[in-house]
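User: Please run a holo structure prediction.
Assistant: Happy to. Please share the sequence and the ligand.
User: Here you go; the ligand is flavin-adenine dinucleotide.
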Amino acid sequence: MVDFGFGLVPSSRINLDLFDKGKYEELAALEPDVRICMACGSCTAVCTAGKFEPTSLREAIEDIKNARADKALQMLEPCQLCGKCSMVCPRGINTRHLILSINKIYSEK
Amino acid sequence: MKNNILIIGGGPAGLEASAQLQRMGYNVILIERSPKLGGHLAKWDRLFPDRVPADEVLRSLLDATEGVKCFTDTDIRAINRLDKSYNVRLTNGITVLSDAVLVASGFDLFNAVRKEEYGYGIYNQVMTNADLEAYFRTGEDRRIENPRKVGFVHCVGSRDEKAGCRSCSKVCCATAVKQAIEMKQAFPEAEVFCFYMDLRLFGRHYEDLYLEAQKEYGVRFIRGRVAEVSENFDGTLLVKAEDTVASKPLKVTLDLLVLMAGMRPSASGKALGELLGMNVEDDGYFAVRSGIAAGQRSQQPGIFLAGAATGPKTLPETLADARAAAMEVDRYLTEVFPDARNYKQLVKERW
Ligand SMILES: Cc1cc2nc3c(=O)[nH]c(=O)nc-3n(C[C@H](O)[C@H](O)[C@H](O)COP(=O)(O)OP(=O)(O)OC[C@H]3O[C@@H](n4cnc5c(N)ncnc54)[C@H](O)[C@@H]3O)c2cc1C
Ligand code: SF4
Ligand code: SF4
Ligand code: SF4
């Protein structure tokens, strides 16, 4: 191929038409609490892993809902399952359990 | 002596104040410019936060007004301030001598056609909150036929300087969340999205409604104002916003878009205000005499205000305001009126 000196970058726009409803419902059946996150960011603020590597449960939940489960898994990879986030979540989400379920459902190809 | 009191506007505020003043022994005359009593309440199906039928609430308001003289299809033609009362000529030819006047002229729904970028009146699949209430009441609307993806747009005509309204309409976040739930109840397979800038769910039980919408109905809340809507060849809508939580532009194809048109000052209230010489504030709603302490007195002696005429209010707030206005009217009439000789002095001291 001819090198024009630039490449094409995939669009970073969120396209909700690509959202996989079936898979999300699978997750929600296992982990209904994924629905009630209100994106407050408390989990991300206290995250122990987040001090060293980008880690954010808030963002991971967003990513899943925005049809970017691949990014969600990346966001949760550094997680140590320390459980600090579950202590601060105002909705009382069992965050560690949720993180494990996200990995379980979305790692399956 | 039974004083005459004229109440202008037969919505929830006017009805509730009529019932209260009637019970206190006053002679109440209620006028409503449209053919029907009930104001906006008569257009709603079920009410937030508990989703009680609007008709039930309206019926109990109407039942309590027994004995009140009601004129529908009636507006004010002219009004003169006499020494101690108002001489009011109605459009039905009747003249009323009234010792106090209560203005309960309510609000108008924002005309969503003016937000052209949302395509109301241009694209087939765009409707308003009021249209959706009408659908829930009648089960009929050509736009609704088993929708699979539905969006709700918050703050339409509110919090929008370009639409001429800086303020928040207060009722539309709760209405959007309520209607999103009702949509999921009607069409369980549908995906429902709410596009908001802030969720203003301030009232008692409102937050419960929000949690219910997320938890039981899986409504997706996206923080970002819908910026642009266009129509696809097949009649579906392409909606663009920024997901400001994710800091990314977002697009989604929907087959129904519901606009949360906000509350604006009533146009017929404005005309009435001009007849009565009443001031409005920058936001277009009537000014009350002195902020917090005298919330239901206008700047004109003997003229009182209640309900959405002084700014967006929920129904419970409207009713509480109407009861407070009734108390204020009663205080005014009993303090000032019996002593006709000192009337002017007393008004000066007490208003
Ligand atoms: C989409 C939407 C949904 C809502 N849903 C809810 C809900 O679920 N729960 C809740 O608590 N609240 C709800 N509200 C708020 C509720 O509708 C208002 O609080 C209430 O209607 C205000 O009552 P009002 O009497 O002040 O005004 P209105 O209801 O506007 O009534 C005013 C009346 O005065 C009449 N009038 C005006 N000018 C004149 C004149 N010059 N002469 C004679 N008559 C005149 C009008 O014709 C009208 O009948 C909702 C509001 C909106 C916009
Ligand atoms: S459990 Fe994981 S995501 Fe939560 S605070 Fe600990 S490291 Fe962060
Ligand atoms: S703390 Fe809880 S509610 Fe807040 S963003 Fe994290 S998961 Fe969501
Ligand atoms: S109540 Fe909600 S939707 Fe209505 S104007 Fe205020 S913020 Fe916007």
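Chain A has a mean pLDDT of 94.
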